[in-house]
Amino acid sequence: MALASWIDLIMCFLLFLLLIYIVATVTITKLHKVYLGFHFSMLIWPYCQFAIRTVDDPLYQLFYVKLAFVDASLLGLGWIFFTILLAGQSQFLNRKIVSALVIPAVLTSLGVVLNPYGWFVRPVNGGYVERIYGPIFWISMTFLVINALVSMYVIYVALTSNQAARVKNQVMYMLKGITALCVFLMIDVLLNVILDDYLPVIPGFTSLGIVVSATFFVITIHQDKVFDIVTIAHQDIINTMEYGILVLDDQEQVVEINHALHPYIPLVTGAAFNMSSYLPDDPAMKIESFLEKYHEHPLETAELEILHPLIQMVVSIHAAPIMVSGSRVGRIVTFQNVTEIRRLIDETNQQNAILKERNDSLVKVQEELFQTNGKLRKLAITDSLTGCYNRHYLMQQLEQEALRVSDTRTPSTIILIDIDFFKKINDQHGHLAGDMVLCNTVELLQRSLRPSDILARYGGEEFIIYLPDTNGAEARRLAKQLKSEVEHNTIHIDYIDEPVSITISMGLLSIAEFKIPPAIEANTYLNDLFKSADKALYAAKHQGRNQIVAAEV
């Protein structure tokens, strides 16, 4: 076999060695996987060129020719996308640009595979070791040139932007790689396609260009650590920290584990990490919610503090994403032993709890005393049946109101109310029904009164309303409203078939100036007022009940 047949295989072998070097010397991440796929596609071209010259069957030769040029289309796309990723120009990865690049490559590859009418390639002397290229070949070459120009434009944008010097350095290596590949590709096309009739075939130019470009990539990866997440995690620093640090890639594979964590989590670089397997199965520790956030929301920080039963330590776990250019490329998980801190906090909390318990006991005693006093005060001033104020409270309030010094004349009104024929209700339906009528009537009256008004039980079925700052006309309007509401109200009692309705008689006393005259005791003054109101009430009952009669002082 001629030496020329082995040139492309040698190039393939060199590319394979570079691939092994990358795998052996750098941490495998998602971006590495993209590059390794790209690098593997670079192996296909020289291997196909070697295979074309070593097989005798024209069908196999044609297969390797087609495979090589389909691979060339993929390489062109790979150059662009890899350039975009390494240059940090993700704005080019929108749907329109991706479609404009992928669709022509797919159509060209389809034309290469179908080779209609020999428009891609035709055999010479019955085989494809020597071949004649058609228009689809030139279309494919055109798209490769376009891909190279697009890659150079992306590099130009990266070099003219505000990128870090480190990024621009690696972009320059990419430019050198693309330039080398383009130069060797054009030499190959010129010598072995355009001048094919005048010169003998010189193999290996394109394969050599691929090797040179791949070498520039390897130099970039090795010197600038373009994929190395460990540089982001500051390896030299994390090994000196007392708490454990675990650096993961976006596929949950270990990128780095510091010395403090090794005794507790026996992992090595490149191993898969499963957070669930290192946590105890205890629902009381809220582990499920932590794992849900850890797995379902990787862009958010997840925190957990547990008492780990295996190592008998209180461990604080903190998981945070590693972001580069707005994308998550991994995660940092820290494990901190907070046993002593938790012990001190628990002791402090226990002391605080004891003090709080004592304070709560004192507060509880105070509240009970306050509530008891409130109940006693309420019992002292309210009627036990209806819940409204009693006569004693009314007298106290009126005495204070009458003794209040005021520069202005403020009218007030007293309304004395009596339930008509109340004794008849007790006689016909019993005292329990009478009590219900009293309570229902009080509730009805309260709804129409102001907060400053006072409704009190005067005695038996009689009630008294004190209306401060209210003249006679206003009081009469209110009295009419109350009388109408009571008259139209129906009281339903469980053991009585028909609802009970009542009416009320009202004695209204309007006081122009509610003030105790000199030389008169407050109790005497108020009793005189009540007598006047009682006379008006008597007159209302004498006139047929369900009436309002006003008296003047």
Give the helix/strand layout.
Layout: H1 3-25, H2 30-54, H3 58-87, H4 95-114, E1 121-124, E2 127-133, H5 135-160, H6 165-194, H7 205-224, H8 229-233, H9 235-238, E3 244-249, E4 254-257, H10 287-296, E5 302-308, E6 313-324, E7 327-337, H11 339-381, E8 389-390, H12 391-403, E9 412-419, H13 422-429, H14 431-447, E10 454-459, E11 462-467, H15 472-487, E12 504-511, H16 522-542, E13 548-552
Parallel strand pairs: 8-10, 12-13
Antiparallel strand pairs: 1-2, 3-4, 3-7, 5-6, 6-7, 9-11, 9-12, 10-11
Coiled coil: 338-365
Organism: Paenibacillus silagei
InterPro entries: Diguanylate_Cyclase, GGDEF_dom, HisKA_7TM, Nucleotide_cyclase, Rev_trsase/Diguanyl_cyclase
Task: Give a verbal description of the structure.
- With 553 residues, this protein is an alpha+beta fold.
- It has helices spanning 3-25, 30-54, 58-87, 95-114, 135-160, 165-194, 205-224, 229-233, 235-238, 287-296, 339-381, 391-403, 422-429, 431-447, 472-487, 522-542; strands at 121-124, 127-133, 244-249, 254-257, 302-308, 313-324, 327-337, 389-390, 412-419, 454-459, 462-467, 504-511, 548-552.
- The strands form three sheets. The chain has a six-stranded mixed sheet with strand order 8-10-11-9-12-13, with helices on both faces. Strands 4-3-7-6-5 form a five-stranded antiparallel sheet, with helices on both faces. The chain has a two-stranded antiparallel sheet with strand order 1-2.
- β1 (121-124) and β2 (127-133) form a beta hairpin.
- The radius of gyration is 50 Å and the shape is elongated.
- The model has no long low-confidence stretch (mean pLDDT 81).
- The chain crosses the membrane at residues 6-27, 34-52, 64-86, 98-120, 132-159, 171-195, 201-221.
